[in-house]
Amino acid sequence: MNKFFLALFACLMIFSFVYAEDTAVIENILNRKSVRQYTTQDVEKEKIDAIIKSGMSAPSAVNLQPWEIVLITDKKVLSEISKKHPYASFTKNASIAIVVCGNSEISPDYWIQDCSAVTENILLATESLGLGAVWCGVYPSPDRVSTIQQILKLPKNIIPLNVIPIGYPKGENLPKQKYNPSKIHINSWTLNK
Ligand SMILES: Cc1cc2nc3c(=O)[nH]c(=O)nc-3n(C[C@H](O)[C@H](O)[C@H](O)COP(=O)(O)O)c2cc1C
């Protein structure tokens, strides 16, 4: 009898393992939020590698992968970006920053979409690793593009889409509630009130 119950228990475990819906990815997406305050703790190399690998696994038009990633670990460079980007003063307190750039010669029509997909992957990876980050827009502001190109010594065809400061979060950071059913249109444009 004991063997029967053991076998039944094993079957139930296997069934629930195979058929249970894994909501971890959805929860990670729903928990992502912009984080602009960081502790002094450095981000470990393994985590940086995982973040960049996640970024580069993004989809891209015709699989051209027109991205280039600049990893910033030098505090002087972080501080220079803080001073010169009008909305990224907190970058100086981050452990690192990642600048997602597009090669406009490889994919003139789609580099922005491709690099945006890289960016979202990076933001989701940081969330899943207990880190905080925020997308600080660079392109299409001509001033910001040329400033970041100058600081990082980028060639003209390498266009910075954004700067993403990353660090261990400080203080309370909560995801915003954005779900809005009135923005969903079924089969054709309908106003759902
Ligand atoms: C294209 C783009 C540019 C952004 N630029 C900045 C920026 O320069 N500085 C900043 O602090 N946040 C910037 N953000 C972050 C937004 O402010 C943030 O995503 C928005 O307020 C929603 O908050 P959440 O990310 O916590 O959901 C940018 C976001 C996007 C998508």
Class based on secondary structure composition and strand pairing: alpha+beta
Characterize the main sheet.
Answer: 5 strands, antiparallel
Classify the beta-strand content into a percent band.
5-15%
Beta-strand segment tally: 5
| First-last Cα distance | 58 Å
Give the % helix.
25-40%
CATH superfamily of the domain at 45-169: NADH Oxidase
- The secondary-structure element order is HHHEHEHEEHE
CATH topology of the domain at 45-169: NADH Oxidase
Low-confidence stretches: none
CATH top level of the domain at 45-169? Alpha Beta
**What is the mean pLDDT?**
94
Tell me what the CATH architecture of the domain at 45-169 is. Answer: 3-Layer(aba) Sandwich
Bound molecules: flavin mononucleotide
Alpha plus pi helix count: 6
Write the layout of secondary structure elements.
Layout: H1 2-19, H2 24-31, H3 45-55, E1 67-72, H4 75-84, E2 96-103, H5 111-128, E3 132-133, E4 136-137, H6 142-152, E5 158-167
Antiparallel strand pairs: 1-2, 2-5, 3-5, 4-5
The chain binds flavin mononucleotide (FMN).
Residues 33-34, 36, 87-88, 134-137, 176 line the site of flavin mononucleotide (FMN).
Structure, explained:
With 193 residues, the chain is α+β, with helices and mostly antiparallel strands. It is built from six helices and five strands. The protein has helices at residues 2-19, 24-31, 45-55, 75-84, 111-128, 142-152, and strands at 67-72, 96-103, 132-133, 136-137, 158-167. Strands 1, 2, 3, 4 and 5 form a five-stranded antiparallel β-sheet that branches. The protein is globular and about 70 Å long. The mean pLDDT is 94.
